[in-house]
Design a protein that fits this description.
The protein has 3 helices and 6 strands. With about 130 residues, the chain is α+β, with helices and mostly antiparallel strands. The chain has a single domain, classed as 2-Layer Sandwich (Alpha-Beta Plaits), CATH 3.30.70. A hairpin with a 2-residue loop joins strand 4 and strand 5. The radius of gyration is 15 Å and the shape is globular.
Length: about 130
């Protein structure tokens, strides 16, 4: 698979001050726009992110929806946990960790973001 050609290579948005929900058990076909449509009825969304494998570009099966208002995020969590989307029952929780500053790696730093991602993936493995 070609690594060139643009795609989704923009910098991560500033998510400081937003309340993040972690959405587990996503179908590999679920897109950020699909998640936005499910969650936008509960309040103003600042960011939607579905991590992808850096080589295959396939979804990792979880994502994040970030709200400007914590109450909106909590309401969305209460209303969408267990909801069926694309044939999968969503598991929605308040996120424990923020998105790493450079998820793609290769631009300095000490790799702390990758360690947090590994911890989060280990938590997912425990649940499945």
């Amino acid at each position: 698979m070609s690594r060139g050609g643009g795609g989704d290579r923009r910098a991560a948005p500033d998510i400081g001050g937003l309340t993040s929900l972690k959405i587990d058990n996503l179908s590999y076909q679920t897109t950020p726009n699909d998640l936005r449509r499910v969650f936008e009825r509960y309040g103003e969304i600042g960011d939607v992110h579905i991590p992808r494998d850096k080589y295959s570009r396939q979804s990792k099966g979880f994502g994040f929806v970030r709200f400007y208002d914590r109450r909106d995020a909590e309401h969305a969590m209460d209303r969408t946990d267990g909801k069926n989307v694309d044939g999968r029952e969503l598991r929605v929780t308040l996120a424990k960790y923020d998105r790493p500053s450079d998820e793609r790696g290769g631009r300095g730093g000490n790799g702390g973001g990758r360690r947090r991602a590994a911890v989060e993936e280990a938590e997912i493995a425990e649940l499945t």
